[in-house]
Amino acid sequence: MLAAKRRDDPGGPEAFARLCERYYQPLYSYLRRRGETPEDAQDLTQGFMARLIEKDVLRHADRARGRFRAFLVTFLKHYAANEHARAAAEKRGGGEPLLSFDLDAAEGRYWLEPRDDVTPERLYDRRCALAVLERALQALRAEFRANGRESFFAAVQGTLTGDVGAAYPEIAERFGMSESNVKVTVHRMRRRYADLVRAEVAETVETDAAVDDELRYLLMALGEARHG
Predict the structure, then answer these.
(1) What is the pTM of this model?
(2) Which residues of the chain are modeled with pLDDT < 50?
(3) What is the SS3 string spanning 93-129?
(4) How many C-beta atoms lie closer than 10 Å to residue 80's C-beta?
């Protein structure tokens, strides 16, 4: 987030692109749950991200003041309240969209959300939590890929979320390992996954205590979605 805030930073554009990628689905889902059509939600999300650059909004984001997740949706609320979908669809940034996102994919994910009375705010928090977990999982997969062990990762990744999937003896036989070695490797994977999740959250808050608070909040958001 800090790199994305510094417009003159050489890594600023790339950092901002990653930021948009991370929050696109949560913001899109929030707008859809508010009643926007798929097309209007896409236009508003794209327009909002363009506005972040045009008005240099990120300079106001202070991790010491609170969660970046909450900061972002607060600005989206103001933007959506004052921007008609037709105005949001106007071309910005030289006539091209800021970033290219797959509307069908975003809409498909939205329809996987619970069809209950979950508010836009709760749905947004849930999607933010899922985005953190997904990005940490992608990072862990990349580490295993770099070590030539992506197939092993694919075989056991379900254990990271409590879904054991294939039995350890079966995995051990498949990869020529002892069952105890499989268990040790999975244990280390879980610890590394937890570290990566924490690192994702740490990008948007200031202190270790704030990281712990945000993790608790995001886990609560996931729990409410499962039991709501």
Answers:
(1) 0.72
(2) 1-6, 64, 85, 88, 91-97, 227
(3) CCCCCCCCCCHHHHHHHHCCCCCCCCCHHHHHHHHHH
(4) 23
